[in-house]
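Regression test case RT-17, inverse folding.

Input:
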């Protein structure tokens, strides 16, 4: 690790390698343009911390807690972020674009209920049993992501790209799908919630 992570400390342009902060508690620490590489942050608590333009690579943040912490342009790559309740974080009233991005991550069993995450990227991820209800995911990119058992209800998916997502179950009558992108055969699942009968054309 290039620098030690401490409570109530301001960090800029720091690289943290292989830090082990499992079940640790950090309070009021601020990170600007920092990179975390192969860090273990399992069950850690980030309380009232701030992350701006930070990147997490090959890290494990499973079951971490983020009460009153703020995130802006924070990217997670090849990391495990399982079971995180993102609604605990401090989100401004204004709709930020790209406050969080996930690439090749496992974010299963996490919660994004009601969050305004316009333009979020969740690409090539495993997102099993993730709660996206009432969230603003307009212009989101779900390319290559497995959305098995994830929940969508009153979710704004306007102009979202699910053309390469898979295993999603989205009720068009309970979500906003204006100009959202879907592709066959996965898009056939949109018909499952409709009271219709599909038949094949007879020769």
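Golden output:
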């Amino acid at each position: 690790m290039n620098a030690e992570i401490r409570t109530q400390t301001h960090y800029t342009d720091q690289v943290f390698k292989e830090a082990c902060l499992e079940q640790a508690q950090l309070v009021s620490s601020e990170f600007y343009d920092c990179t975390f590489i192969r860090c273990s942050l399992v069950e850690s608590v980030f309380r009232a911390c701030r992350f701006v333009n930070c990147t997490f690579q090959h890290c494990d943040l499973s079951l971490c807690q983020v009460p009153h912490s703020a995130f802006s342009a924070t990217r997670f790559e090849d990391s495990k972020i399982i079971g995180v309740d993102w609604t605990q974080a401090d989100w401004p009233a204004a709709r930020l674009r790209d406050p969080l991005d996930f690439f090749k991550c496992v974010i299963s069993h996490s919660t994004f209920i009601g969050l305004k995450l316009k333009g979020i990227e969740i690409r090539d991820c495993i997102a099993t049993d993730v709660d996206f209800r009432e969230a603003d995911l307009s212009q989101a990119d779900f390319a290559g992501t497995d959305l098995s058992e994830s929940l969508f209800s009153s979710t704004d998916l306007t102009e979202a790209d699910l053309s390469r997502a898979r295993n999603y179950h989205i009720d068009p009558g309970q979500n906003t799908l204006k100009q959202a992108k879907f592709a066959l055969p996965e898009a056939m699942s949109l018909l499952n919630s409709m009271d219709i009968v599909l038949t094949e054309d007879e020769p």
